[in-house]
Amino acid sequence: MEESLRRWSWVNIDLSAVRHNVREARKLIPRSTRLLAVVKADAYGHGAVKVAEAALSAGADHLGVATVSEGIELRRAQIGAPILILSQPPASAIPLLLAYNIMPSVYESEFAVQYGEMADAHGMEAPFHLAVNSGMNRIGVRYDEVVPFMMQIGFHRALKLAGVFTHFATADAPEPFEFDVQAHRFEESIAALRQMGVDPGIVHAANSAATVRYPGVHYDMVRWGICMYGFHPCPETRLRVALKPVMSVHARITDARLVPMSEGVSYGFNYRSPGSVKICTLPIGYADGLVRGLSGRIDFLLKGRRFRQVGNICMDQCMFEADMRSFATRTRIDPQVGDEVVIVGEQGDEAVTIDDMAAKLNTISYEVAIGFSHRMPRYYLG
Q1: Catalytic residue from among 40, 115, 286, 366
Q2: Given pLDDT bands bounded at 50, 70 and 90, which one contains residue 332?
Q3: Does 136 show up as a binding residue in the annotation?
Q4: pLDDT tens digit string along 138-150?
Q5: Going along 193-313, which residue ranges are E strands?
Q6: Where is the Alanine racemase C-terminal domain (predicted)?
Q7: CA-CA 20 to 30 A from 371: which of 44, 46, 57, 190?
Q8: 267 is annotated as an active-site residue
């Protein structure tokens, strides 16, 4: 039985939008500059394999993941593009890196030597990207210590420096001062490597925000992350690149009833019926990623019109209100069981967005998008 027949809530993923967003990135960078599509965290909740395939078909060259398991998933799907883990995995994962041809980030000499030793024992090379800490202080060799670090590990014949990268903490901030400091430090570290005769390989630093805002740091490769999914990392990017949203969330009404005036709805009775309303139930709740903190603060779309979500969002269900009064200026809509409702997406001239939800939760769109769980099936369109 098809999953959509088991439960009336699902997620649509528009792969044509992924391809569009990758092509938009390609317009921003020189033809010779590589593009790494970031598909970590199951492609920000969109589905790593399908998104990776779409991105590669539209012009991406490399793929970025966060864990060894994420890389293995791509390899098992017969994806042959270079895969970079954007942090250093535990040494116990080295056999898997070699077996699946997954490239690690490196910033500890002990890991680097163990990686090189195991590769050499099997007659293999051990390619890696050197992570440089230019100021974010999350991972990486400190920018002014890259030369001694490379001297420490450079003796090993199996180790092959394939790239050097850093990550910007404030590329999405209005003021560029801190960004400029990081960029300057990173460029100094690259210059120092070259001065000692080390080829840094693929030099990369630009995340989505920097790719759009700062052409000077495109270097040899950019990393296209949140923008690939149709989200803008900051207001400054909105006028510079035309993105299309990839994810939409849908459900069908499972119950619709007239609730008398003053009677409560959902846990805690935080909402009470004003009368002349129909309360409609949808099979989606906070276990599916519709966060309880959004209770009473969002709208859904039905037949191209906005309807207010009411009552506390439950683990598996939530409710919305339909005003059943008649007005001369508005056609009354009478919701019925089985009607499709848009939780996230567009319908007619209206739209409800993950950005809006994130703003109400005082968080970022990444967190909301990743939260929509795989308890709801994904359907890939386009």
Answers
A1: 40
A2: confident
A3: no
A4: 999 999 999 999 9
A5: 202-206, 221-224, 247-252, 255-258, 264-265, 271-272, 277-282, 299-302, 305-310
A6: 246-381
A7: 57
A8: yes
